[in-house]
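To the wet lab folks,

You asked to see what we're planning to order before we commit. Fair enough. Below is the target structure as tokens, and below that is the sequence we designed to fit it. If anything looks off to you, flag it before the synthesis order goes out.
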């Protein structure tokens, strides 16, 4: 079987689907691995690094797409490229399936099996294939490192002959994978960290990392789904949350927001009046910018400086700021996925649509949308 990793086309994308280590592991399984020339340019790998582990480096993208049994890439494909794929091929990438109905139809027409990385089940078995987690973890880290670089202060307390420098106060909103890593990184740098989430178990996890948990009684239903995702709050609950958060924001040097609601636009949790009450020079990093943003005033891809001198960063692809490790763990997710379904005897993939993992993430098969959530 042949696996192909094409170059990422989006300018902002610094990651790629395969590093030489995972390419070599796939080859050891018995796959023929082809990568498009230049694949690892942004993540620190030369073509020769791939050829040295036995992969084939090709310049003809079209032939790579047309002959592959498995295509792995980071970003969703252009519709025109789906028409180049072989019938029955497996395509694994982020797909944004809630917003890309036409793309799903293209996979149906081409009779390609499309796997959406976003839909990987959040189970112990699928953990090693969970690209949302492997990337969110790094986004949490880069949010803190960006804040450390941009702020006017420093994170740790320093007692010097010239006086004592107070530790930075950091507020993390949303304690999922990214939020937990942001807490851990900020704590390692010596900041005082406060964190909030609507899931009570997340507050306990924050405390176990040494953060102070902000507890707000929102009333009514809060908490998570069976997959651990947050449930959407009512407008009244969001208002109540905003009032309590505003007090913490006003005292914070850095606010990092990561609050998402799976498959929906992210809630706006920090309103303009809260931003206006923050101190000059404070930093907001909105990790939810790509899904609409948690902060009023966030502009996707930009730094916005407010009238009172607060800097709001809505940068996209935050994990792409550390492309080598982001590629390393993403490639490992791809490898683990292929390895899980690999049949050593026949040296082919055994993809039973009834498999628990595939039931979660396989969207199209055999010319149909088979995933319950996207059938309608
Ligand atoms: P996410 O990116 O969907 O959201 C980030 C955080 O924002 C979540 O903790 C969520 O509760 C929080 N949030 C949503 N609305 C909020 C609001 N109004 N105010 C404050 N916070 C709000 O989350 P994620 O990082 O993808 O993690 C989702 C869940 O999946 C977590 O429970 C995580 O532990 C779990 N998970 C499990 C596995 C596994 O078992 N294999 C792997 C990864 C994640």
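Sequence we intend to order:
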């Amino acid at each position: 079987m042949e696996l192909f990793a094409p170059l990422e086309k989006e300018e902002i994308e610094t990651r790629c689907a395969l590093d030489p280590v995972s390419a070599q592991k796939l080859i050891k399984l018995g796959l023929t691995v082809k990568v498009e020339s230049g694949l690892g340019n942004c993540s620190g790998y030369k073509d020769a690094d791939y050829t040295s582990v036995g992969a084939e480096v090709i310049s003809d993208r079209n032939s790579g797409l047309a002959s592959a049994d498995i295509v792995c890439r980071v970003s969703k494909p252009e519709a025109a490229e789906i028409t180049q794929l072989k019938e029955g091929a497996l395509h694994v990438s982020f797909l944004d399936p809630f917003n890309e109905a036409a793309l799903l139809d293209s996979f149906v027409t081409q009779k390609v099996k499309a796997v959406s990385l976003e839909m990987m089940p959040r189970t112990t078995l699928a953990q090693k294939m969970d690209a949302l987690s492997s990337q969110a973890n790094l986004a949490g880290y880069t949010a803190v490192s960006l804040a450390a670089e941009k702020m006017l202060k420093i994170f740790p307390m320093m007692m010097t002959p010239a006086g004592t420098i107070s530790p930075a106060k950091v507020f993390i909103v949303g304690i999922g994978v990214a939020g937990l890593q942001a807490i851990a990184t900020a704590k390692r740098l010596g900041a005082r960290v406060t964190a909030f989430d609507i899931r009570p178990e997340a507050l306990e996890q924050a405390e176990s990392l040494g953060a102070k948990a902000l507890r707000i009684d929102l009333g009514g239903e809060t908490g998570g789904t069976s997959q651990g995702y947050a449930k959407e709050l009512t407008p009244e609950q969001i208002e109540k949350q905003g009032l309590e958060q505003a007090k913490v924001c006003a005292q914070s040097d850095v606010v990092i927001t990561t609050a998402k609601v799976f498959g929906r636009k992210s809630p706006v949790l920090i309103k303009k009046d809260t931003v206006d009450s923050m101190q000059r020079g404070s930093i907001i990093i909105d990790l939810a910018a790509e899904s609409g943003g948690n902060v009023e005033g966030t502009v996707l891809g930009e730094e916005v400086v407010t009238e009172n001198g607060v800097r709001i960063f809505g940068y996209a692809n935050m994990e792409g700021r550390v492309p080598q490790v982001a590629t390393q763990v993403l490639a490992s997710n791809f490898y683990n996925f292929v390895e899980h379904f690999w049949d050593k005897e026949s040296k082919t993939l055994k993809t039973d649509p009834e498999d628990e993992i595939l039931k979660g993430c396989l969207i199209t098969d055999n010319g149909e949308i088979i995933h319950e959530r996207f059938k309608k």
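Structural context that might help your review: The first strand starts at residue 2 and ends at 5. Residues 136-321 form a domain with the Rossmann fold fold (CATH 3.40.50.720).

Thanks,
Computational group
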